[in-house]
Amino acid sequence: MVRLIVMTVMLVTTCLTSLVIVVCWHKPPIVALCFLLFFGSIELLYFSASLTKFCEGAWLPILLALFLMIIMFLWHYATIRKYEYDLHNKVSLDWLLALGPSLGIARVPGIGLVFTDLTAGIPANFSRFVTNLPAYHRILVFVCVKSVPVPHVPAAERYLVGRVGPSAHRSYRCIVRYGYRDVHQDVDSFESELVARLADFIQYDWYRSRRSSMSVEDDVSNSNESSSHRLTVIGTTGFSIQPGYESGGESVQQASVSVGFPTVQSVSDVIEMEPTVSERRVRFAIDYEPESDARSEVGVQMQEELEDLYAAQEAGIAFILGHSHVRAKQGSSVLKKLALNYGYNFLRRNCRGPDVALKVPPVSLLEVGMVYIV
Questions:
Q1: Which residues form the domain of 281?
Q2: Taking Cα atoms as reference points, which of 125, 141, 88 lies closest to residue 308?
Q3: Do residues 318 and 137 touch, judged by C-beta distance below 8 A?
Q4: Position 373 in a domain
Q5: CA 209, CA 350: separation in Å to the nearest integer?
Q6: Which DSSP symbol is given to 181?
Q7: Is 124 inside a domain boundary?
Q8: H/E run at residue 345
Q9: Contact by Cβ (8 Å): 16, 72
Q10: What are the Cα distances from residue 13, in Å, to 4, 111, 297?
């Protein structure tokens, strides 16, 4: 039985290595074919000889592996369908900007962190939240936590921050990137770090607007609306702009994430965005002059926005997460209904929730119930 397991692993490894030769190493297919025929024939010979032990007990690990594979496939399939549902049912920016006292919507003190898998647009669970509770926080941040295919993401490259709408609306988007060996921060340090990065972005954005109005920078628009369509890498030693715009799908970004980050080829590798556009990359080190800025209108507006941010932090931070329930749409096959309505929902109820994974304190948690018809 052990021999059959080992030979199966070796045979699968050989098949996958032949794909690596072509896809990753960019060798001619004939090289991969020769590798597969040479090693695969030897391993297939031993594998066929080990099949005689199948009825003597080797069926058990194969059955267990098949069971685990079905679970992983089911989880992956439902997760992808949920993401597609969010992508096609997100609400527009105009809808968010139209919310106000005229519709009975109030802005309450504090910071609301809306966690979502989307990197552009307003998630559907937030519209459901506002529908059931006609109020949202004075400072609104749409947070997207992404795992990237690199071991570590430097602290100076972890946060991508941008505006959602004009500056007066006090809404932002923040994409937080972690490598697969990075340890997620504790909630207290995450809150303070996020607020600090938002403050850095506010200073940079108003500084950019001031320089643009003085015709020092050529490639950046002067309007706050345009800044809602770009994300900026906010670090501890400066700022690097990520030009782009929001289209009907996800945000379009430039080719490079940042200098000195060669393991990630593009922002599309990191946050699953659409193909890139070619634009110039600029990096700034801010030399902030509080006395001169305070005399200008830009400096006053920046100071007001920073004061609103810190006042909201003092009022408290709420974490808004979606509590999803997946159901198969009408007309689906019996197998799909069993897999989604029972299988996936059973796994979701008995697995670690996103609030535990993100280390959200229960006292600050707001869950929004959401039914996904996929």
A1: 152-315
A2: 141
A3: yes
A4: no
A5: 49
A6: T
A7: no
A8: helix 345-349
A9: no
A10: 14, 49, 64
Does residue 75 form part of some domain?
no
- pTM, to two decimals: 0.71
Token pair in block for residue 55: 């009825």
Contact 71, 348 (CB under 8 A): no
Calpha distance 104→108 (Å, rounded): 13
Give how many domains the chain has, as a whole number: 2
50 plus 160 within the same structural domain: no
pLDDT for residue 179 is more than 70:
yes
Q: Are residues 164 and 267 in the same domain?
A: yes
Q: Residue with structure tokens 């593009």?
A: 266
Token match 């890139």: residue?
276
The first and second tokens of residue 371, run together, are: 């039914």
Q: Tell me: the pLDDT tens digits for 25-55?
A: 999 999 999 999 999 899 888 888 877 777 7
User: In the structure encoding, which two tokens stand for residue 61, read together?
Assistant: 């690990």
**160 and 295 share one domain:** yes
Is residue 76 in a domain?
no
Q: DSSP alpha helices (H): ranges in 150-213?
A: 187-213
Of 303, 279, 180, 283, give the one whose Cα is nearest residue 239.
Answer: 283
